[in-house]
Design goal:
The chain has 491 residues and is of the alpha/beta class. The protein is 36% helix and 16% strand. A seven-stranded mixed sheet has the order 7-6-12-13-14-11-15, with helices on both faces. Strands 9-2-1-10-16 form a five-stranded parallel sheet, with helices on one face. The longest helix has 25 residues. The mean pLDDT is 97. Bound molecules: flavin-adenine dinucleotide. Flavin-adenine dinucleotide binds next to helix 1 and strand 11. Flavin-adenine dinucleotide (FAD) binds next to helix 1 and strand 11.
């Protein structure tokens, strides 16, 4: 076999591309990462804001899955970062000026929920007993079958999760009597971008609340780019190389390597690989579905947000959508191709807890709502009206804004197809058979030297690096096979 300079080349430097590269480099493999943009990190980028001295995360800001990621923990990443935890993980305000808070402490959260106190405890207590192991199990390509060596499968917690999570969020909410509990769970489930009537939207509410109770919903001091910087350091320490400003359009542009890993969504991988994959596989990838897009606004504010429910100032993340029914209606409209008048808005107010992102007297915040995939309208007004609804006077504090529609997001990162932040819709079918059901595990492709490692593989979207970690395990096996062949040839 031709001796390549690289054992593996990774196309794309998002958290999954970097995690895959690190996992391989730590196994003495020669790794090169190629990134199309000038700056490394994909969804981990932090941008200089509209005003010098202020910073906005372009995508991820609240990174509980990074804090809980078994791979990031195994490489000692959490210890090398400064985590910022708001007192509460999440606030969810209502029109009457009240708010429900999700705290890291289970009892304190249950206490928020009045007569649903016991139900909330009964739902989460069994999940939390071996919460770390449960989360690690759920973040595997085949929960209960493939596992991290250090986390034995917590079978009873997994069964409880399967019972409660393999249903729709609406079904889950119906177990609760108070508006507070139902709205809290509906807002968590809405992160999935699935209609709340659809299975397994409940699983997203459970996983996000589980993270909140295990590790909080932390941010990184200075912005999420700090995480990218530590990953880059780690890769460099193991001899891996990075090349930015190197968009790959064809396989021939990739230096010779024994394996190529694609931190790409199927649509862009298809454009790059083309006929080298057989027709049946290309057809499978072409059927891969993207979910709704997002419309995001970065704000610079004169002072922090004037919440009517003052408790909202205790949480970095605020869910603006009112009741569970209202959130369900908004998400349903989006999936049906319509833009709701009152969208469900996920708002993050980082400077409230991390002064390093801004200047004295100025606050930074961002908010996004789901929009139909590829939507070309302007959601600025409906998003800001939702904020104003729960924080009268918000608009008068806006110094500057920068809006990102689906097209703008995709221009910045081709993985955000039509603005889909999840690299593919997490329907029941696309949860594990992602990006396709065959070959299995889905990091593999019919070409034994080509692999997927992006969030279009299990366990899907979010900053955890585990798609890359699991992909690297199968790439490692392929490289070992090539090593054996090389040894045989040389004897
Ligand atoms: C607005 C928004 C908010 C989000 N908020 C959060 C959050 O708070 N918490 C959280 O956990 N997650 C959040 N996410 C999701 C998270 O950012 C992604 O799930 C994660 O970044 C996916 O990582 P990845 O490595 O698979 O791909 P990406 O991070 O998308 O990285 C892919 C990289 O590949 C590069 N690339 C693409 N095509 C090519 C090519 N042809 N050649 C070379 N390079 C190429 C891209 O430039 C990019 O750098 C958010 C996403 C968005 C869009």
């Amino acid at each position: 076999m031709r001796q390549s300079q690289w054992d593996a080349v990774v196309v794309g430097s998002g958290p999954n591309g970097l995690a895959a590269a690190i996992a391989l480099a730590r196994n003495q493999r020669r790794v090169l990462v190629l990134e199309g943009q000038e700056r490394i990190g994909g969804g981990l980028r932090t941008d200089p804001s509209i005003v010098p001295g202020c910073r906005h995360d372009h995508c991820a800001t609240v990174v509980p899955l990074a804090a809980a990621s078994p791979f990031f923990r195994a490489i000692g990443l959490p210890e090398r970062l400064v985590w910022v935890r708001s007192p509460a993980a999440l606030a969810h305000p209502f029109d009457d000026g009240s708010a429900v808070l999700l705290w890291q402490d289970l009892e304190r959260t249950a206490d928020e929920l009045g007569e649903d106190r016991g139900r909330y405890r009964a739902l989460f207590q069994p999940l939390l007993e071996r919460g770390d192991a449960l989360l690690a199990t759920l973040l595997s390509p085949a929960p209960g079958v493939i596992r991290f060596p250090e986390f034995p499968v917590p079978w009873s917690a997994l069964l409880h999760f399967a019972r409660e999570g393999t249903r729709s969020a609406i079904h889950l909410c119906q177990q609760f009597r108070t508006e507070q509990a139902r709205a809290l769970l509906a807002g968590l489930a809405a992160h999935s971008t699935l209609p709340l009537e659809r299975v397994p939207s409940a699983a997203f509410a459970l996983v996000l609340a589980l993270c909140a109770h295990l590790v909080g919903w932390p941010l990184l001091r200075g912005g999420t780019a700090q995480l990218a910087a530590r990953l880059i350091d780690e890769l460099a320490a193991w001899g891996g190389r990075l090349q930015s400003g190197y968009p790959v359009h064809r396989l021939t542009e990739i230096p010779p390597a024994r394996a190529v890993l694609l931190d790409l969504v199927p649509k862009n991988a298809l454009a790059l690989v083309g006929q080298r994959w057989p027709r049946w596989y290309r057809q499978q990838l072409a059927r891969f579905r993207h979910g709704p897009g997002v419309f995001k606004i970065d704000w610079l504010l004169r002072d922090e947000i004037p919440w009517r429910a003052t408790a909202c100032a205790l949480a970095a993340t605020v869910h603006l959508g009112g009741t569970a029914e209202e959130i369900a209606a908004a998400e349903r409209a989006v999936v049906n191709g319509r833009m709701p008048e009152r969208p469900f808005v996920i708002l993050v107010q980082p400077s409230q807890f991390d002064q390093s992102r801004t200047l004295a007297g100025v606050a930074v915040a961002w908010g996004y709502c789901h929009v139909p995939n590829g939507w070309q309208g302007d959601a600025t007004d409906v998003i800001e009206r939702q904020v104003e609804r729960f924080a009268p006077g918000f608009r008068s504090r806006i110094l500057a804004r920068r809006a990102w529609g689906p097209h703008d997001l995709e221009m910045r990162n081709p993985n955000l197809v039509g603005g889909d932040l999840g690299a593919g819709w997490p329907t029941l079918r696309q949860l594990f058979a992602r990006p396709s059901w065959w070959p299995w595990p889905p990091y593999r492709t019919p070409d034994p030297a080509l692999f997927f490692c992006s969030a279009s593989t299990p366990p899907g979207g979010g900053v955890h690096g585990l798609c890359g970690y699991w992909a690297a395990r199968w790439v490692g096996r392929w490289l070992q096979r090539l090593d054996r062949v090389d040894r045989l040839k040389s004897t």
